[in-house]
Every structure is written in C-alpha cells, then in structure tokens.
Design a protein that fits this description.
Length: about 500
C-alpha cells in the first residue's frame, strides 16, 4: 500500500471517526436526556415507532439512487468529468420527484396509515413525516454523494451538523412542552440544517467545479437508474432489517416494548460507530483498485480492516453483554430494565454488523451490488417472518433473536462474495480469529469477576477500563497490534 493512499485513507477515516464521534456522542446525550429525564417509556417508544414507520415509507423517496450516483461519480471523475454535473442533475431531479410522491401520501393518508397500524397516536407524526422525509432524503444524499467524490471531510461535516442540531432542537422543543412530537420536530430541523449545508457545498464545490458536457454519454442515465435498482432492493432490505422489527414490536406489543427494543439498538449503534466509519472510508478505494487491476492491494486492505474490526468488536460485544444489566439500570434508570435481555442478545449482532459495515459498501464499489441485494432481500424476508412468529410468542426478545439469526446468514454470504472477488487468505484469517477469541476469553473472565461489584457509574466505568487495559495488553503481547503501526497511523494525516 502506497504512503499516499494510506495517508488518504487515514485522513478520511479520522474525519469520519470524528464526525461519527460527534454524531454518536450527541445521539447518546439525546438518548439519555430523553429516556431518563424528559420522556416516559411510552412517549419514547411512540417517538421511535413513528420514526421506524417513516424510515420504511422513505424507501420510496430515492431508494438506492444516491449510492448509484456515487458509484458513477467516482468512476467518471477521471474518465469523463463533463458528465459529473449531468449525473448530479439527474439524481436530484429523480429524488425530488420521489419525495413529492411520498409527501402527498403522508399528508393525505396519515390518518388511514395510523388506523392500519392500530395506534392513532402516531397520526400527527406521520403528517409531519412529509418534511421529515424531505430533510432526511437530502441529508443522506449529501453524505453519499460526497463519498462518491472521495470528499469524506464534507460527508463527516454533514453528519456531525445533523447530530448536534438534532440534539439542540429536540431537547429545546420537549422542554418547551411539546413532548414526543416536539422531539420529532427537533429531528426534522436538525436534519434540515445539515441537508441545506450539504447541498449548498455540493453545488459550490462539486457541481460548479466541472464543465457540464453538452449531452449525456449514451446510456449513462439508464445505467445510473438501472444500478440503483439492486441498491434500492438492498437498502429496502436493510431498512426492513433495521426498522421493520421496531414497527412489528409496536404493532404486536406496545410503545413501552418499542422503547426497550429501540434503546438496546441505539446502544448497539453507538458501539458500532468506528466500524461504520472505516467501511465508509475505505469502500471507494476498492472500486478504484479493481478498475486499476490491483486485486492484491484490495485484498490486503480488506484483510487488514477485517482483522482489526474483529479484534475490536469481539471483545467489546462480550464485555457489553456481561455488564448490560448495571449499564442499563445505572445510565437510563430502572424503568428501562426490560431492555437488558434485548441488549444481551444484540451483542452478537454487534460483531455481525461490524463485519457488514466494513463489507457492504465495499461490495457495491466492487460492482457486486446485485449479489448483495439478493442476499439482503432473502434474509430481510426471513427476518420479517421470524419477527411475526417470535414477537407474539416470546415478546420483545424475539425481535432481537430474529435479527441475529438472519443477519448471520447475510454476513456469511457477504464474506463468500468478497472471497470470490479478492481470494482472501483464509488460513491466516482463521489463525488471527483464534487469537482474538483467546484474548476475549481472558478479558471476559475478568469482567465476569468484577460485574457483581458494579453498583455505581464510577464502578461501571472502572470495570470497563480494566477490561480495555487487559485487552490492549494481550493484543500487543500477541502481536495482533504492532506499536509501530499504531505510531504510523497516528502520524498519518495529522493535518486533519
């Protein structure tokens, strides 16, 4: 790997990691403030049930168009830069049309949708969902489009601005007396501010930077739209995986159960932020290197990222499962104790999703979106079916079990496709995983011994610190972490 490429990846990773830290930090503060101080479990559950429903509805508003455009933007930056403005124009035009369709459905059909869901309390959330979908769609489009230009600093900025703005306005509106609906409008305003920033910068720094071609390259609009189809299917399946379980928990159970499930998933999302940042950062490089014919580089990059991801997340998942009970009750309060078993089951999902975050975007840039879409679609349908069976029979934990079971299959398929593309060194990977499991076992035993003594936040954080120290010591001692590599990475891209 060239030093220039390494510096570029590290700079992008640092920018995304800082942005994710800001976004997830603001999300964590918002989660704690809403759950512990401002909303009861019923209000908290209603808020996120409505957001879950709208996330499913939002699929109509663009689907995988943004990611398809990002792929062609990355390809045509050097190949035919005059096509860049035209691809952007096409993307925005189709996006606006789709948003208009969704907005009309929500504005005129919110009461009927709420009646079908069996809870009239979500009707005002659905009516306001028209502006939520508008803000979220352009917020997401800006982030993905900047990724296509490999301008990850701007992607990071949009994400960070959205997180901080959402925190400020959601808390302000709830404190002003608007309750869960006020928190919802805080989400809308926060994402709208970030979207305006992102689209403005995109126009000034990207659209105007290229001389617009007199016409589209023959077949290019068709290719952009066609490639968005499997990406839309993948995104749809991903939304079903991430949101339909929340919708079904609310449908079969109640908003309080939604609060327990949502809280556990939000904790998991917070833990997964670094893996998400790494996957987002390195994925454009796979497309570039495949186009250049440098498969060896792409394989080395993926294997290094995968082993480092597992080294971080296997121990983290085990540790979180062990301290889940004191963590939930001490941070969020005893009212949310029902989230504890859900969080413990979802700790398995932490490892699976960490691999997915690293792999999924990479497959899209390798041109294997169709294979990923088929796998995602199949497992999403299986997840839906398992949720329908398990939630009514064993409650909210059933949703977590369904998520873990189906996502295990999806990860297996993803890894198989990556191996088919890059010919991974399986024996070396297996040996490394064995070392990681051994390190996790030693660390886990120590945390099990400490867990019964956790009675305060200070003891909780002290126990976590001890576990991290043991993990770090064993990782260095086993050679899985090279001190020289750490110094190199910390020194690379220090100008960020």
């Amino acid at each position: 790997m060239s030093s220039r490429t390494l510096n570029h990846i590290v700079r992008g990773f640092k920018a995304m990691l800082v942005a994710r830290a800001i976004y997830m930090g603001s999300s964590a503060v918002l989660m704690v403030v809403l759950a512990r101080f401002l909303l009861d479990p019923d209000g908290y559950g209603t808020l996120f049930w409505a957001i879950g429903v709208l996330s499913v509805v939002q699929l109509i508003a663009g689907g995988g168009l943004g990611k398809s455009a990002a792929r062609y933007l990355a390809e045509y930056r050097e190949k035919a830069p005059g096509q860049i403005p035209r691809v952007l124009e096409l993307t925005v035009a189709v996006q606006v049309l789709c948003i208009a369709v969704v907005s009309v459905i929500l504005l005129f059909g919110h009461d009927r949708i709420a009646a079908v869901l069996g809870d009239g309390a979500v009707a005002p959330f659905l009516a306001a969902g028209a502006v939520y979908v508008l803000a979220m769609s352009f917020h997401g489009l800006a982030i993905i489009t900047f990724q296509g230009f490999n301008m990850l600093g701007y992607s990071a900025a949009v994400q960070a601005i959205g997180g901080v703005s959402r925190l400020l306005f959601a808390v302000a509106f709830v404190v002003a007396g608007f309750g869960a609906l006020g928190a919802f409008f805080g989400y809308v305003v926060g994402y709208a501010i970030a979207a305006v920033f992102g689209i403005t910068v995109l126009y000034l720094q990207c659209y105007r930077a290229f001389e617009r071609a007199s016409s589209f390259e023959p077949g290019l609009p068709r290719r952009v739209l066609e490639y968005s189809v499997p990406l839309t299917a993948t995104r749809g399946a991903n939304v079903i995986d991430k949101q339909i379980d929340i919708v079904l928990v609310g449908f079969f159970l109640n908003p309080v159960a939604v609060a327990f499930y949502t809280l556990a998933k939000q904790v998991v999302d917070f833990v997964l932020a670094p893996a998400d940042s790494l996957g987002f950062t390195i994925s454009p490089n796979f497309g570039e290197q495949k186009a250049a014919g440098d498969i060896e580089y792409a394989r080395t990059l993926y294997e290094t990222a995968l082993t480092n991801t597992l080294l971080l997340y296997v121990p983290a998942a085990v540790g979180l499962a062990i301290v889940a009970e004191p963590f939930v009750t001490l941070v969020f309060g005893g009212d949310y104790a029902g989230a504890i078993p859900v969080l413990q089951v979802l700790c398995v999902f932490v490892v699976l999703q960490a691999i997915t975050n690293l792999t999924s975007d990479s497959l899209d840039y390798l041109g294997r979106a169709r294979a990923r879409a088929m796998a995602k679609g199949g497992t999403a349908l299986a997840n839906f079916g398992l949720n329908v069976v398990l939630i009514p029979t064993i409650g909210v934990v059933g949703a977590a079990i369904a998520t873990v079971a189906t996502h295990s299959i999806y990860v297996g398929v993803n890894l198989y496709v990556v191996h088919a593309e890059l010919s991974l060194c399986l024996e070396e990977l297996a040996a490394t995983v064995g070392k990681i499991v051994a390190i996790t076992g030693v660390m886990g035993l120590l945390v099990v011994v400490l867990a019964p003594f956790i009675s305060s936040l200070g003891m909780l954080f002290a126990s976590i610190a001890v576990g991290v120290a043991v993990w770090a010591g064993l990782a260095f001692a086993s050679g899985l972490i090279d001190p020289q590599d750490v110094r190199t990475v910390l020194g690379s891209g220090s100008d960020v």
